[in-house]
Structure formats: structure tokens, C-alpha cells
């Protein structure tokens, strides 16, 4: 059930009217629903009911808020992390070290060592030198690192170029053609226990076909590696499942995804690992904002809101669509461009969109902002870092403070050698 719904003409998050949050916390602010997070976590698991052995690792990059992570930890989720910072967050949120997978194309030696010291479950190695370095570090610590090799299956994920990762010319993984020999060499290194393969072809995937092609290729590789004498016990299938951003979007359901995975992998006899991000968090959050001004434009008016590209970067970065709806809709519509206060034209959330009619002082939300929203925020234009709220029924709590420009400024200094 959508927990962001109108009650008596006012948009609520679960049982909390959004104007109350705007008044008490201020705007812009991200608002998440605990019930929706839990439901998505459960639905994803249910979708995989025919997969006998599985490990679920929430992709922390999509929403690293500690409150959100704690909800998912309680749902039995581990974490997919891509930096030392994310690793510490996962642990701080109560995720067990062995449930943490370390992905990422540019892990530093210090981060590899940190992962070992923390006792994480698995390293996803992106290329041979990284594997060699991990083996050396592990050996020096008299430890063994559990690892899988990430392959690049060279499939077109059919998503935005900036979030595609599985084409041969993307920076991720190693080609399937070179993987078996590389796997042989890595598996021979003391300090490394090579136990499987990882794959992730991109994000916001709206068709299962490219995933199925990629998984099928990985299945063949697993058979080859076994024929070569390797003990393959784990395959990490990454994340990538898309969500609905606008009316009419029809991404595959979690159940359809799970059924496809179960069918393609039924003879693999491994523990399957998953790294979902957006599909868990995307629709569980909104960015609540206040309309500052409505300014006439050459064609349509500009609705200038107090959120900007620094708070929600996706439209500026990927031309992403986020539904914009009034918190207290009058029923009337208007055609407008929705923009933020930042001083560049890229700070545009929507161009010439038919939307709820709003006026200065009205509240509105950008929907589907729970994933890749707050996590990508910055303080560009010396704006504050946007706060976050988690709603649970008729209560809510600020799970991240607004960080004022003055706090950021306090971490800077003027050299005393400039007079
Ligand atoms: N695993 C790996 C190795 C990844 O690189 C990613 C996302 C995920 C899992 C999670 O993918 P998801 O299930 O969320 O699709 N900032 C962009 C999205 C970047 C995705 C990066 N990798 C956006 O706002 O659309």
C-alpha cells in the first residue's frame, strides 16, 4: 500500500500530515515511511521464495541513513557497501559483519584492510591487481579473504547511459572471456578464498531480458569454473530492478524478477546474493518542499520551490522524472516548469509539466525520492544539507539533522599567510 496518500484532502506519510512535518522540521526535507520500507523488504524476499539459499544485501548507496538501515537490518538484510564510510554505517546500523559485501571498482588498500579487520563476509573483486592486493593484505594479517570475481557480461541494460554498468566499455568487472584464467590465478593465491562470481549490469532496469541474458552467461561461466575444479558456492546477482517514477511506468514486479531468477538459476546449487537498492527504498520516500514563488515565464510559469538540485540531483544528472504533487491539491491543474533556487538552468525538476496547481506558500512533494535522493545531496550554493525524517504510524523522528552552511563553513579556514 502506498503510505503517501490523501486524507481529508491533505497528503500524509502514514498517519502524519505532511504540513506538520513542514512546520516542525522545515523544508526542504526528505520523509520516509517505515511501513513501506518493511513491505518492500518483505516483498523482495517473498519474490525469491523459490530460491533456496539466498543472501540479501541492501545497496547502501541508495539510502545510507542510519535509521533506514536499522529498519532493514531488522528485516534481516545485510549490506552492499562501496566505501569504508558505507562499511562503518552498515555496522553502526546493526548489520552483522558477515552479512556485508564490499563492492566497488576503486577500493583502496586501506579499505581492503578495513574490510578484513571488520570481518566482512565477502569482497567483490573488480580486477586482478585488486585481488592480488587483497591476498597480500590478508596474508600479512594471517587471514583469508572470501571473495568473488565480478564479471562484465557485455549486455545492454537498456537504461540511462550514466547508470549502465554491464557493457564491455564500462569500467566495471572483467570480461567473461578472460574470467576463467584470471579465476585460476586468483584462486591459487594464499590469503584468498575465491568462492564465486558477481554481476551487476545497471540500475533502474525496466525489462528483465538483459538481466536474464547476463545471468545465463554467468551460469555458463559457473559450469566452466566447476569443470576446471573450482568450488563455486556463491553467486552475487547485484541489484538493478527498476521502479515506477511516473504514471504508466510498468517495471517488472519483484515476483516476476524472483520467478525469472529461480528459473535461470535452478541448477546452480549456490547461495545467491542480491544487492537491491532502489526497489527497496525508491518509493518509500518523498522530498517535501515549499513553493517560494510562481514567476511568469516566456511560455509557462516557473514554480520556484525551496528544494534544489543540490537536494535532489537526479533530474539535473539523468533528466530523471519525479512526480510533483501538491500536499493539499485543489483539483485544478497548471502547466509549469518546476525549478529550484540554485543559480543554473540545470536546476530544473520538470519542464512544461502539467501538474497540480500551486501558489506561493503551498507545500508539495517530489515522489519516489527515497533512493538516490538525500544520499546524493550536496551543499552547492552554500545551501544547508537537507534533513531526513522517518515516519512510523502516528509518530516520526528526524533521522538526519539539517546541516547548516555555517557548520560547513566552520570546517574551513583562511590561511594566515594571506593578508
Ligand atoms: N550493486 C552494485 C554493484 C551497484 O553498483 C548498484 C548501483 C547496486 C547494487 C544497486 O542498484 P539498484 O538496485 O539501486 O538499481 N545514482 C543513480 C543510480 C546509481 C546506481 C549505482 N549502482 C540514480 O540516481 O539513478
From TrEMBL:
For the modification N6-(pyridoxal phosphate)lysine, the affected residues are: 61
Instruction: Please write the reaction equations for the catalytic activity of this protein.
Output: meso-2,6-diaminopimelate + H(+) = L-lysine + CO2
Q: Which GO terms describe its biological process?
A: lysine biosynthetic process via diaminopimelate
Residue ranges of domain Orn/DAP/Arg decarboxylase 2 N-terminal in the record = 38-281
Q: Where is the active site?
A: 343 (proton donor)
Oligomer and partners: Homodimer.
Its recorded name reads Diaminopimelate decarboxylase
This chain's source organism reads Sphingopyxis bauzanensis
- Tell me what gene encodes this: lysA
